[in-house]
Amino acid sequence: MRALASRLLQFVLTVWAATVAVFALMQILPGNAAQVAAGMSATAEDVARIEQEFGLDRPLVVQYGEWLMGMLRGDLGVSYVTGAPITPLVVDSIQVTLILVVSAMVLALVIAVPLGTVAALLRGRRLGALLSGLSQVGVAVPNFLAGILLVMVFSLGLGWFPSSGWQAPVFGLGGFLSHLVLPVCALALVQGAILTRYVRSAVLEVMREDYLRTARAKGRTSGSALAVHGLRNAAIPVVTVAGVQLATLLIGAVVIEQVFVLPGMGSELVRAVANRDLLTVQAIVMVLVFLVLLLNLVIDLLYTLLDPRVRNAA
Amino acid sequence: MSRLLAVAAGAAALTLTITGCSAGAGGSGGGDANADRTDIVVAHTAEPVNLDFTTTDGAAIPQALMENVYESLVRIDQDGELQPALATDWTVSDDRLTYTFTLDEDATFSNGDPVTAEDVKFSYERVQSDEWTNALGAKMDLVDSIEASDENTVEITLSRPSNTWLFNLASLVGAVFHPDEVDDLANTAVGSGPYEVEEFTRGQQIVFTKRDDYAGATPGTLDTVTFRYFDDAVAASNALKSGQIDVISNLQTPELTPDFESDDTKQVEVGTTNGEVVLSMNNAEGIFADQKAREAVLYGIDEQAVLDTAWGGYGTLIGGMVPPTDPYYEDLNDVWPHDVDKAKELAEEAGIDGEEFRFTVPNRPYAQASAEMVAAQLEEIGLRPTIVTQEFPAVWLDETMTNHDYDMSVINHVEARDILTVFGDGYYTGYDASRIEDIAADADEGTEEEYVEGMKEVARTVTEDAAAGFLFLFPNLVVADASVAGLPVNAVSDSFQIYDLAWN
């Protein structure tokens, strides 16, 4: 229990440190919002006037304090560039990104667990080598390339799916899913290949364990021994990696959202950076950082569920 | 590769079974299938950050809203000529100071209220107030007084005669607003145009619907027009090929044009713009403060080769800061012919051969491609440019335009009739504006003939002073489904006019 409390305290402190870091980093970005809003025919006075209107001329401490207090209330502020409140924008775009990332992770696991297990069981045989080789190729393909190839084949070539865009589920499930398929595949294929390799080595590791030999000696087939005793043990390293990979997927989603013109956090982030809409950039980066930290927390807690040794040690 | 595709196919099939979904792409693809459609989807590149061009710079907002949602008293047509809009008629006094506009009696705002002379007065006085922060508002500085003489008549008096003022009035500074509807311009747009904004989803699209109660000069055709925004030109092309969109308003990947040209279900139109792709040089400081050095550059550059390589040969060579659709256009391509020997000679005389200089380039496709070609040509005459790529707009605006920390740059100056801004006092080009200021002022106050002659002289002086290189006039590459009619092919006003769009 004390371990849990100290883990939570650590989480809160890290989040706070992140707010300082994010805010500080924003100040280093060259160029400013007033200048971008004023454009190419503006004079220095025009820029100064807009700076004042945006509140950019106030002391940094005041700007930081206001931002932090707002976040505690769940209010990310009003973008001075778009004139719109940021919270709904983040809420809308995070749904897109999370749907994308979570579907991709699920699909990746659906691909990786059976393929990785089969590749491990068939090690040394032709099919095992093929699976292993395929996953090697998959690991080497960047997300965006996978995305472009998928568009070429399934959108431009076969016309099965739209090449870009997003449709919210409320406007029809069919349209929602058909827009989702290609970007999710682009993320999941690469991720699935990476995870396949981890699953394979985790299963291989487990297969060498004494308890599996014992189970086989007691009459189980090697498949059922693995299913009953092995997979849970193999799951621990896989969960760790999947957790870390979720963070990678979030980053991959930024690129994939660009390729497929999806209105997720990544697209919003790129747009906000281009306009030097610092409040929006801060908000999105902060939410992403928060998600990653939260993810780590959840993984740590998951260990204790999966592995009694960790639970007892704590 | 085939392995990869096999994996891809397998996974897609897997997804299909998982989701149990087999939706098609819902494509179009030309032909009669579209004849009955009452909607159209148009792809644009730059997206409006909000709907308020009174405080936010950038071409995207007026492109969407001017003429479609907001109207001015006058407008610019596809040939660059002035046409009536909210004003059905106007007269100019003999001293050319007072303009009397007669408003269209039937004009209404989308909230149902009639457009009155008082609304015009309100809107134009607002341009001169602090509430209007867009720097383009300076175009209304010379307005002395605005009087609503009756419900439908507005008298505008200028502090001096000006040939450019009426033209400028057709731009966003002339937009007429409803006095009760200016509190949240960033999110709501109430104007007198043929369309209203039905939905603005930031980051995705703007949906316009036709106003049935519009009785003005430019009634709409289609019921619904959607603007969708694509940062990535390839994504836009793919969307057109797979039938998700119907028009690309300005293709940013000219290398894809032949693809569409050979496709019977598509049409490609090459129009003109007001965008001069300028090879700017810092006239005030550094190695290009010396006119000989700039002349060396201009002799050293083969503009046709730059255009062919950078933009697939689409575009027009202009040789000066004036597009051919302007009344004072003159072909200035012969002033600085391509002459490598002369360039080398001048570079040596100016003592700049072998000297390194800072060539700042915005991270835009046209600029990157042009800069590489220019740099190669300059190396041939013994110069040593160091290309520095800068994020556009933020970093370029900051370092090159505001801090003048550059020797050479490439940028598309998109504003209409912007020669006096770009070569004006204090602007980043560092040009000695006193060379043209008086000629320009006289031209603006003179008769129309004097205006044309005077501005020709201004343009010629700028070119002859080797103030900058003029690489080419940016083309407007419109690609659309073959059965789309009424495309605004030339981008010569602030607006992308949607009211003539139709299906054949």
Give the structure's gist in a few sentences:
The complex is a heterodimer of chains A (314) and B (504). By secondary structure, chain A is an all-alpha fold. Chain A has 13 helices and no strands.
Strand content of chain B: 15-25%
Number of helices of chain B: 14
Cα end-to-end separation of chain A: 9 Å
Write the element-wise H/E pattern of chain A from the N-terminal end onward: HHHHHHHHHHHHH
Give the oligomer, counting copies of the same chain as homo and different chains as hetero: heterodimer
Which percent band covers the strand fraction of chain A?
Answer: under 5%
* Number of beta-strand segments of chain A: 0
Unreliable parts of chain B: 1-31
Low-confidence stretches of chain A: none
Q: Which two protein chains have the largest interface (Cβ within 8 Å of the partner's Cβ), and how many residues from each?
A: A-B, 74 and 65 residues
Structural class of chain A: mainly alpha
Task: Sum up the overall morphology of chain A in one term.
Answer: globular
Instruction: Report the major sheet of chain B.
Output: 10 strands, mixed
Q: Tell how many strands the DSSP assignment of chain B holds.
A: 18
In the sheet with the most strands of chain B, the strands line up as 8-9-10-1-11-16-12-15-13-14
> Whole-number radius of gyration of chain B?
25 Å
Overall SS class of chain B: alpha+beta
- What is the count of DSSP helices of chain A, taking H or I runs of 4+ residues? 13
The overall pLDDT average of chain A reads: 83
Span between termini of chain B = 42 Å
Q: Shape of chain B from CA axes? A: globular
